[in-house]
Automatic annotation (TrEMBL):
Gene this protein is translated from: Bud23
Pfam families assigned to the protein according to its UniProt record, in alphabetical order: Methyltransf_11 (PF08241), WBS_methylT (PF12589)
The species this protein was found in: Formicarius rufipectus
Single GO biological process annotation from the record: rRNA (guanine-N7)-methylation
This protein's name: 18S rRNA (guanine-N(7))-methyltransferase
Biased composition (Basic and acidic residues): 236-245
Amino acid sequence: RSSRVLEIQAQMSERAVELLGLPGDRPCLLLDVGCGSGLSGDYISEEGHYWIGMDISPAMLDVAVEREVEGDLLLADVGHGIPFRPGMFDGCISISAVQWLCNADKKSHSPPKRLYRFFSTLYTALARGSRAVLQLYPENSEQLELITAQAMRAGFTGGMVVDYPNSAKAKKFFLCLFVGASGTLPKGLGTECADEEQHQAKFTNERTRFKNIKGKSVKKSRDWILEKKERRRRQGKEVRADTKYTGRKRRPRF
């Protein structure tokens, strides 16, 4: 409902479709991975293309149905693969979704295996010569390397396009992947005056300061509780709202 969020979503969707390099003389069929409430699909429809959206959250898809989006919707976990016939799509976009495959929400989840399953089946579902443009928010350089490595292992070529690399707020990461013959990687916006070294993504380890030596938040801590609640929200479950009392330890007795 936030106008700011809607504006950012529309801008990233427009940029992702632009990076696809679609032909201007015919409508195309696109796959929207992590389509949510269908905001990206609205832009695809405005451009005269058709689309199918996939999302793991029933609640988000219900919102898309209520909004009467023009695309078809599929409830599915992309970590299990893309269930469409070979060469079906002319392109694929994803806004702020792929990085969630790096999380192990269940004991049976293996991020490398889930990423490879996603990319290998996506490669099959895309037509030869098409592209996939995946906007993501990598948590650190290791996560970005894992995502890119599994994409290349699945057969894709291409690389990362970074828009406005010198801006703290406007910086955006787009993984631009080619199917079949590799094309020329597009240049990121705001890089005309930047040095070649600044094209590379820079990361900090600020997010890990509250974690123990194993890389996980201390059990029963506030961060651990917030992370657990966020995982449940992504799974479409009802969770109590976060407050200043969340994670606060009770006294031994009242």
